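In the laboratory, one determines a bound structure by crystallizing the protein with its ligand and collecting diffraction data. In a computational setting the workflow is compressed into a single prediction: the sequence and the ligand go in, and a structural description comes out. We illustrate the idea with histidyl-adenosine monophosphate.
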Amino acid sequence: MIKRIKGTQDIYLEEMKYWHYVESAVREVTRLYAFQEVRTPIFEATELFKRSVGESTDVVQKEMYTFEDKGGRSITLRPEGTASIARAFVENGFINLGAPMKLYYMGPMFRYERPQAGRLRQFHQIGIETLGSSHPTADYEVIEFAMSLLKRLKIDDAKLYINTVGCEKCRPNYKQALRDFYADKIDGLCTDCKRRYDTNIMRLLDCKVDSEVAAKAPSIHSYLCDECSKHFNELQELLKANNIDFEIDSRLVRGLDYYTKTAFEIRAESLGSQNQIIGGGRYDGLVEYIGGKAIPAVGFAAGIERIIMVLKSMGIKPETEEIASVAVLPMLENAFTLAFEYARRLRKRNISVFVDVMDRNLRNRLKHASRIGTKIAVIIGEEEIEKNLATVKVLDTGSQFKVDGDFMASFVEEKLMEL
Ligand code: HAM
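The predicted complex, in structure-token form:
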């Protein structure tokens, strides 16, 4: 019997529901935040990843699925999505389509890592990339998107860590400070640290084996140039002003070379060793480095398998697939005119609506509304018709609001965004 390759998975039946649940949340949140989908090839020229991810990274040195095709070209199964997006941006002249370009992608990635829970050789990412803005508001929006996606999935067990990795102006000084700090300690450190001392000194900071030494290493925050320092402060201000909790992790350096300034990760404490569900940051040099103009950019990617592990560990079951967002429930014969009017107003706001045209009581109407996945019911009875009102019920929590009919659509829209 031929078996599937180690580190890969078949996804089917009950498991598939989790995938649809995550994918439909991604489609919905990308729509709300105006990100457009891009699909790039699953394999690319090896050179693309060597140049963008970085020759000295673990991904390039140890983890790529690289082979020669029949035409003698060196091909690599993509280990991540950002390099391909940057290449597609340059190759297809996205620069002419206006800035910023807000793009997203979903699909399989390949890394030859040691398989374990939450670590696969074929795994799936969803990622977003904003290209064209150097302003910290773009970093902020990308992080807000990540938090909204998790909220929509009902994951509240995740924590945001941020840091800055500086830029080509200030990073060399910091790297030198690290080299000086580690110079007399390196003989006692692990083999990975020894190798990285010459090639990728900042990765010594996130070594799991020698974390006690790393804890005493100098912090990048004392070496930042004014521009990087200002950028990092502004990002923190934006996060605070918008009530997004975060912690600064000055040893967060990320495993890919293209980052500049902001780096962030979202970790789910319940997951154990592979607890990073989202990783991202700014990469202002990448587009130029692979042959385009100097285009600043920021983005992140989330591992779908890890998100699903969190959902399972929290006991979150995928919801019934949503057929409509809102159910309008006319409780009387003469409520239909108003019901169709309310439905039209909601649809004008791009909200999908199911109007219940069956003859049944409120309990059964609500039961069906839940079955088809609606989040909110708008109930119209006698009082609602007489006084131009609408009763808005959030199905998950059962909370109910009586609102002025003229503001029903905007109220429902706001409630949907909160869910
Ligand atoms: P990354 O941190 O290498 O970043 O990967 C992002 C996410 O992919 C991780 O947080 C994790 O959830 C998932 N992941 C990575 N490796 C595996 C694996 N072997 N098995 C299962 N899941 C995995 C990037 O890939 C960057 N391109 C993110 C980015 C986008 N930065 C800016 N824009």
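The radius of gyration is 25 Å. Keep in mind that any predicted model is a hypothesis to be tested, not a measurement.
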